[in-house]
Every structure is written in structure tokens, then in C-alpha cells.
Sequence to fold (512 residues):
Amino acid sequence: MTDVLRPAVVDIDLGGPLVVPRLGGRRRRNHRWPPPPRAVRRAIGPVLVLALWQLASNLGLFSSIEVASPIAVFDAGRQLWEQGALQSNLVVSLRRVGEGLVLGVAAGVFLAVVSGLFHLGEDLLDPVLQAARAVPILGLVPLSIIWFGVGEAPKIFLIALGCAFPVYLNTYAGIRSVDVKLVEAGRTFGLNRWGLVRQVVLPGSLPGFLVGLRFAIVGSWLIIIVAEEINAQSGIGYLIMQAQTTDRTDIMFLGLVVYALLGLVADAIVRFLESRLLSWRRGFTGS
Amino acid sequence: MAVSATGVTRAFAGREVLKGLDLSIGRHQFVALLGRSGSGKSTLLRILGGLDDGYEGQVWVPAQRSVVFQESRLIPWQRVLPNVVIGLKATAGPGALRARAESALAEVGLADHARAWPVTLSGGEAQRVALARALVREPRLMLLDEPFGALDALTRTRMQSLLKDLCARREPAVLLVTHDVDEAILLADRVLVLVDGRITLDRAVAGAEPTALRSRLLEELGVVG
Fold:
């Protein structure tokens, strides 16, 4: 069938003026001032909460014994800092967490590598570790005191144990998730077993390891709080317990704030590590 | 002779995929292997590449051989240049290896991508890096497993002419596994058809009338042309 070709451009009655395609339809009004930076906008919420808290305290809505006001917490912090008690207890807590973390992460990585790379290791280790991780670590506090006494050892032991499991699980999963096609390609291009482990398998498990590290850090703060509140003569947890005996809620809040800040700092460190170690994921060329 | 295989049989769970296959490929010869999915063509390539040793029969291949897979299989956490030289030992100092990799990248037109991360490459670029990784090993046998199968039509055409140039210059023996009849005729000196684990057609491309060869190949593949 021969047909007359239609013209490529057709007149359409649009029935109105043309608009620039833009979501929302209406144009935004020009701001006289540029909007504040995101960090400022995100700070508004927390600052508002603190302000309301302070206001409620000033109005007497909270009893000053049960809930210390933000200013009282800040004062308690300054006071303890001047006495040197805050720093010394902070250093003690940091040391415990640091030592436990190092031991636990090392153990977790070692176990993950053994059971990730060797079938025998997997068969021997994995069932034991999968069963053991179901044990709540804090349930071991009384046992750890019997085993290690009341010194530093039980606290470091509990933190190490608490860190080892998430690191093990996620690193092991990371090793197992490495694409077999990459391993096969590596082998055809002449990588030996050690080369495959070093260049393909371990770097491929790094994202999993970092997830595990994050869990480990969060968990280690949880464990140190409980461990120091139950059985310690120093540390931030001890500071909180001491404050309880004297009804100093300002110091108790201060301890919680310190823990929270440490948690945030630790998280920022892991995120920094991720951005450096996993730059290949988003393809930053780096500098 | 670059490949000599006689009586190659490979079975998976009792099902024979290759049935006493014989194949020889001469030095510098470019051979295309056509077959439908499941005909055993990738199995044969994997055996020749040393990725599968569960076969029976005799297989001789050069030690210096390399593979290009359908996916680039670049290691995502290594930049392009270390990917190209992966597994190679620096015999004449690290600088020499680097220079070789750079010239291989230049050959595939990616000289300025040496420091790029694989995620930033397009499909065609990644496949060119995979070609450079194969070339830098100065192979006497190149095994190509549908290397352009995942690329768009325009990129595939460019890659085909790049491959043709590279092979004309370097003269390795090539076994190209493909299901694209036109690609086979365009690139190869000799075309084989694999049906049910045996080579059922073996034709030289030079001197053959392309249209007739094409319909003969399609017929052998079970496509009425």
C-alpha cells in the first residue's frame, strides 16, 4: 500500500502557553538570603531539644534531683575536668575498649580467614562460632569475674569476645561473597594461591569486614558500660555508678553524653576508613 | 601448531557435552567456533584455557595463552594498570612491566585510563582493558569466549575491527567462541560449527562466497537460512 508520508512536524493545538518542564510547577520565589548550610540546618533540631530541656528545668517541670539540666551537666563536666577525674576515667575506658577491640578484631579476622579459605576450617569452626554467637555476651559477666577476677582482664575479655563475633560473621560472609569468576580469572592470569588470597579474596571481603567493625565498635561501648557499672574502680561507667550513690544525676548524664560522643567519634573513624579503603566502589581517582 | 586436541570427551553428571572431539589450530590461525547455547563451545574453551581438567583425551596448547571472557572480569579494587599486569612477575624490573602494560593499553586506545577504577569504565572500555590484559602476556593462543556478546551493536562493531587489527599485528592463534555468524565470517580465517559435542562443519573463509558460507553455517546451526 502506498501512502502519502505525513509531515514530520505536526501542528498541535496546545491550548495554552508553553512552560518549562519542571517538577512542582510553580517557580520558587527568589531568596534574598541564601539558605543556611546543611550542617547549620541539621544542628537546629538538637539545639532546640537542649533549649526545651533547659527551659523545662528552669520552669521546675523536672525535679533537679531526677533530671539535671543541660547547664548543670555542663558544669559537672567542667568541675570533673578541673579535678582531673573526667580525663583519667576516660583514658581508662578508652584503653579497655581499645585493647578489647584490637584483640577481638584480630581474633575475628583470623577465624574468618581460616574458615573462609579452608573447608576443613569452615567445618570445624563455623558451627561452633554460629552456636556461640547466640550466647548473650553480657550473660558472661559473672563467669568472667570468676575466671579473671576484678581487674582489667574480665572487661577486656568481654569486649574482645563481643567484637570477635560481628567481625567474624561479616568478614567470613565477605570472603564467601567474592565472585568465583574473579577468582577463576585471577588463576588464568597466573595468580597463585597466595596471590589470589592477597589480591582478590581479602580485598573483596573488606566491605564485609568494615560492616563487622562498625558492629564491633557499637557493641564494645555497650559492653564497657555494663562491665564498668557492675565491677570496676575506674572508668566512665564507674563514674556513673558512683554518682548514683550520691544522687548526682548531672554526673550520670555527663557519663552518658561522653559515651555518646565517643560512639559518634568511633563511627566517624570507621566512615573515614570506608571512604579511603573502598574508594574503588564509587571510582574516586583520589589524589 | 597452536592447538592439538584429539578425542576430547567431557561429561557433566553423566551427560556428555563433548563427544570425542578432534581439533587442531595452526600457528597464527584465527578460528571461530560457532554453536548454539549448550553445544559445548564454552566447555571446549575452558578446557583449552586450563580452567577445566575433568576431561578425557589428549590436549596440547601453548603455555603462553590468555583468555578474554564475556564479562571483563576486572578486579574492581585495582586500577586499570595493575589489572592489566595481574599475575605477571617483574623479571626486568617493575618499570619494564609498567611500560609493557602502558603500551598494551595504548594499543587498545586506553592509554589515558591507566589510573582509572574499573567501575568508571563503560562496557566497551572494560572489554578493551580485558583485551590489553590478554595481549600484554604476548600469547601464542588467545581464547575469546563471546567477548563482545554483552556489548551494544555499535561498540561491538568497533571492538571487532580493533580485534582484527590487533590480531593482524600480533599474529597469535585465536579461538573465538561466538554465536554470531557474521562476526565469525568477518574475523576468522576458518569457521567451525559445533553440534552436540562434535565439530560437524569446518570451512575456510578465504575464497568462500560470503553469502553462501553464511547460509551454509546457518543451516548447520539449525536455522533455516
